[in-house]
Design a protein that fits this description.
Elements: H1 3-23, H2 27-41, H3 45-61, H4 65-84, H5 107-113
Length: 115
């Protein structure tokens, strides 16, 4: 895909995952979609930051202090990390993943993100 088309496709994929997170019936399913949206959002400073804001809201709703604190830290570093290209590919964005831990990208996402 050309650069602009890939960017539009990526944004569409991000929006689909975020919409699925909003309509998911369980917390585990919501987190899974937020994590997938995070993987897709990492190269884009705005989407990456928005994703961590959504994760923070989810953590607060669950009263998960550890996750909420981790999301506050991630909110601070998300945009600079995206702008500089210093983000770990495939990272799910959760506290348990570690800030700079690269992870495998799910095969269906990888196929959709490849040029």
């Amino acid at each position: 895909m050309e650069g602009a088309r890939l960017e539009l496709h990526t944004r569409d994929l991000y929006r689909r995952e975020m919409a699925a997170a909003k309509t998911a019936s369980t917390a585990d399913q919501r987190w899974r979609h937020l994590e997938r949206a995070h993987i897709v959002s990492q190269p884009d400073p705005w989407l990456h930051t928005c994703n961590h804001a959504a994760m923070l809201v989810m953590a607060l709703r669950e009263r998960n202090r550890r996750e909420a604190l981790g999301q506050v830290v991630r909110l601070i570093v998300a945009a600079p990390g995206s702008i500089s290209g210093r983000y770990p590919p495939g990272n799910t964005g959760r506290v348990d993943a570690g800030l700079m831990t690269a992870m495998p990208i799910p095969s269906d996402l990888a196929a959709q993100l490849s040029p």
